[in-house]
Specification:
Strand content: 5-15%
CATH class of one domain: Alpha Beta
Number of helices: 21
Shape: globular
Number of strands: 15
Strand order of the largest sheet: 3-4-5-9-10
Radius of gyration: 24 Å
Mean pLDDT: 88
Low-confidence stretches: 1-31, 33-42
CATH topology of one domain: Glutamine Phosphoribosylpyrophosphate, subunit 1, domain 1
Distance between the termini: 26 Å
Largest sheet: 5 strands, antiparallel
CATH architecture of one domain: 4-Layer Sandwich
């Protein structure tokens, strides 16, 4: 390892220089980057922090004999950060917060450790192998995002939340220092006590993270998560709604009971300054390419939310420096009975679960991708082996869905804004060890706690739907989306067609054109099924839902298959051009 550590002065590192220095590339506006540790940790060894980091009161960090911090004590830190520590003894540690809020990708090349917040930065190193990870290819196609420490490159790994990468005595190992353990200490508190305590914790988290209200914006929807954050923020400013700023976005064509209109009603009722940002597909190709380049094609999030990066840029231009968001781990969806059902509920799928995908993946790769994705999923299952199904579901959501999917959307937000996930505050995550599964189902405890804490907000209507696009319609009719897909399929020279059947995908794309005057048979069948379910007694419907949970087959819509292939295509084309 190098014996000197220094910050670069560049916002983006896009070249590799032969140097003995170990460099940490800055990402985004300089005000987001803090090189200071708490007062007691200013002395050597050298320590660098990106983001915001605080000490937990009365919980000192354990220091090893060498003077280096013990990775096992990192759970005493709070905040949204990535940190690097380099000691003269040769000890080096790279760590991220519990949620993996700041992405860190790393690789070992010729005896050196290289790391960066973007995979494409590592591609600047000529010694990095361009070999693709077959398990990642299969998981991205089936689930829409990567899990665990995956990237699309076999030799590049993501540092998982709650982990530290330690280099010592010639060895480089990723070590966990914290794990989300919902329900593991449940049983000692009453419902009343739990509700009051969660209300207190949400209030405290909002107050700590709000900062200067004039420079902070709260992402507001018509649901429960952001409503609780807004209620706590209002208390933090003594009810002065006019001092708070909120924002929501949507198509502008949504129904009156969907997210954006309900958010506007909440804003009006509380007196906050509210703005609406319109989602469109204008210039879809450019936004698709820009966003995917930032996240290393780690998920399909940019394909479905192409404008969010530019929204963040616009908010920054409007004077905002901080955003309060509502990502959470308060309990995911309905109860499950088996581990297989838990995986399905959090949308983690094996490649072979949708048998049609074998028609689109080149035969010489399909079996390998299936085998490799099975191995990755088996490791994820092993993390919750012996755990109750509902506890496993909530852990898998936090460790793989939130980190692997939602955090990809976080990255292009934190480039422009100091983003804070209030409901993922460390005290709240620890508190959920006390919450039994029955109170986590569909966020039951959170809903009760917030209704008790902020009854006037909870008296307002809740959204019955989102304010997003209908992608079946867009794929069939939208000129910008269809034009980009057609252009991509016409790109015969792309290296991605080594892995996929271009003609089969072209036929799939052609099948999305609507039948004039008649709904496709598959859509008619689904409509009939939905109407029939509405007429069935509740116990029968729940029985059918339980039966469905044990059946792990997958039927991806055409837009998901096509857009995920194009996400992979962009990455394959980028690594081909970077050789």
């Amino acid at each position: 390892m190098a014996d000197r550590l220094a910050h670069t002065q560049e916002d983006v590192v896009n070249r590799w220089g032969q140097t003995d220095d170990l460099m940490i590339g800055r990402v985004g506006p300089g005000h987001l980057h803090h090189t200071e540790w708490p007062t007691d940790f200013q002395k050597p060894p050298r320590r660098f922090v990106a983001g915001v980091l605080h000490m937990t009161p009365n919980r000192p960090l354990a220091v090893q004999r060498s003077g280096a911090i013990s990775p096992s004590s990192l759970s005493a830190l709070r905040g949204f950060y990535a940190v690097a520590e380099h000691h003269a003894s040769g000890h080096f540690m790279l760590a991220v917060d519990r949620r993996g809020s700041f992405p860190v990708y790393y690789a070992q090349i010729d005896g050196f450790l290289v790391f960066a917040p973007e995979v494409r930065a590592l591609l600047a190193h000529p010694g990095l192998s361009r070999s693709l990870d077959p398990g990642a290819m299969g998981l991205l196609l089936a689930s829409g995002h990567l899990i665990s420490d995956q990237t699309l490159l076999a030799d590049v790994r993501r540092l998982r939340g709650g982990h530290a990468l330690v280099v010592e005595e010639g060895l480089c190992q990723s070590q966990p220092y914290w794990r989300f353990r919902p329900g593991t200490r449940a049983g000692g508190e009453s419902t009343h006590e739990l509700e009051l305590e969660l209300g207190r914790l949400v209030r405290g988290a909002a107050r700590r993270n709000l900062g200067d209200p004039s420079k902070a914006v709260i992402f507001l929807s018509g649901g429960a998560d952001s409503r609780g954050i807004l209620g706590a923020a209002l208390e933090a400013v003594d009810g002065d709604g006019a001092s708070l700023q909120t924002v929501t976005w949507g198509t502008g064509e949504e129904g009156r009971d969907s997210d954006a209109p309900i958010a506007a009603r909440i804003a009006e009722a509380t007196g906050v300054h509210h703005r609406f940002m319109r989602r469109t597909t204008q210039d879809y190709e450019r936004h698709f390419r820009d966003g995917n380049a930032l996240i290393g094609s780690a998920s399909d999030v940019v394909a479905y939310h192409p404008l969010e990066y530019s929204f963040m840029q616009d908010l920054r231009g409007a004077g905002f420096e901080r955003a309060l968001r509502g990502d959470e781990a308060l309990g995911w969806s309905t109860p499950v009975r088996t581990l297989a059902a838990a995986l399905t509920k959090v949308k983690l799928h094996r490649l072979e679960e949708d048998s049609r995908l074998s028609s689109y993946v080149a035969p010489r790769y399909y079996d390998d991708w299936c085998r490799a994705s099975d191995e990755v999923m088996a490791k994820a299952e092993e993390e919750v082996r012996g755990t109750a199904a509902d506890d496993a579901k909530d852990y898998l959501y936090f460790a793989h869905r939130l980190e692997g999917y939602l955090n990809t959307a976080t990255y292009y937000k934190l480039i422009w804004l100091d983003q804070r996930n209030v409901l993922l505050d460390e005290e709240i995550l620890d508190f959920f060890e006390l919450v039994p599964a029955s109170f986590r189902v569909d966020k039951l405890l959170y809903r009760r706690a917030m209704a008790r804490a902020f009854p006037q907000l909870w008296a307002l209507p809740f959204a019955a739907g989102n304010s997003l696009e209908n992608w079946r319609s867009l794929l069939a009719e939208d000129a910008a989306v269809r034009g980009f897909i057609q252009k991509s399929l016409d790109d015969e020279r792309s290296h991605v067609w080594e892995f996929f059947d271009r003609r089969a995908l072209a036929l799939l794309f052609q099948s999305t054109v609507p039948h004039v005057g008649r709904q496709p048979a598959s859509q008619r069948a689904r409509a009939v099924m939905r109407a029939a379910l509405l007429r069935l007694p509740g116990p029968v419907v729940r029985g059918l839902q339980n039966l469905r949970e044990t059946h792990t087959s997958l039927h991806l819509p055409a837009h998901a298959i096509l857009l995920r292939v194009l996400v992979i295509k962009q990455f394959v084309d980028e690594i081909a051009s970077a050789k």
